[in-house]
């Protein structure tokens, strides 16, 4: 759709994915080394949270919320046919996000209630702006994606209130993680089979992924119940529900012909990242039965599922929306492998020693290197103009 007034500002502010994918990647690459330094006593934060709570909060409501904003403000114009939000509204939104990160780290001197207000403003603004665009475009079916964003906002407020009242956040941690995991299953479960189907059709394949149907809806509904039950009380009943949900999501993934995409690393990444989620759900369920440590499942979900899927989506959207071929190349493939390695090391071998370095520290280094590779390779594309040699190709988002 064209505009009466063509956008003449900097490319970075022309689409949501450019600004928010860049700041999310920069934040992801910087915050994990900071967390290791805080854990080792080499750095101190003076915000409202305990160090572990700060790390968890910023991965969910800092990094995760920024990627979500970038995705929504890029996908919604495809859903509605309206012009994207760009220019000063995007810049203002990014400044609100930054104020939240600084206040939570204690770098803006505010009382806990003031920090909660500043930090919560970002997701509130994202939610309201997204609702306005969807309502204006009368694209009612995609309102389903916005509901979890409001729940994520509520989880953030709960996180702050728990920290104020109890000193640490438990319900807020689990609820926030659960919402992001659900969004990965919802959005990833739409784009992964759709992109795979399109690619296989172009190659003349007859065996195609199963289209989204009632089974997917049942899986999502049961997983949402399992995640909410676990967030409320991580007991054995919730653990059983998570195990069932994980197995259902594994069946769902198996219907999408992921192994047929081995010639397309960008597609294979989506399938591999999605696979971490059922593994993480089952492992978290087993932790409720005291079979596995809780950290194993949580990091399969957080590092592998959320980190892997968001990075894969950022890669694909950046390539497609800046007019480049959908070809990952060695740098971006290495970046995704770094996330996968970080997930395995942090979940399975956190205390293993390799040349005097723990598995946890190696996982942190692998995560940081992965986002560093993405920034070095894709950063110039996000900041610069559309590729001059090709007509810009949007990456369609399934309706």
Structure explained in plain terms:
It is a single chain. Helix 9 packs antiparallel against helix 10. The chain has 399 residues and is mostly helical. The chain has a two-stranded antiparallel ribbon with strand order 1-2. The longest helix is centred in the middle third of the chain and has 32 residues, at 171-202. The model is unreliable at 390-396 (pLDDT under 50). It is 72% helix and 1% strand. The protein is globular and about 55 Å long. It has 12 helices and 2 strands; from the N terminus they run H-H-H-H-H-H-H-H-H-H-H-E-E-H. It folds into 2 domains: 11-169, no CATH class; 178-386, no CATH class. The two termini are 17 Å apart. It has helices at residues 16-39, 51-80, 88-104, 112-136, 143-166, 171-202, 214-232, 236-254, 265-288, 294-321, 329-348, 359-383, and strands at 353-354, 357-358.
Q: Indicate the radius of gyration in whole angstroms.
A: 20 Å
Give the rounded overall mean pLDDT. 93
- The overall number of domains is 2
Strand order of the largest sheet: 1-2
Output the number of helix runs. Answer: 12
Global structural class: mainly alpha
Number of strands: 2
Poorly predicted runs are: 390-396
- Percent of sequence in beta strands: under 5%
Terminal-residue CA separation: 17 Å
**Share in helix:** over 70%
Element pattern in H and E: HHHHHHHHHHHEEH
Shape: globular
Main sheet: strands, sense, barrel: 2 strands, antiparallel
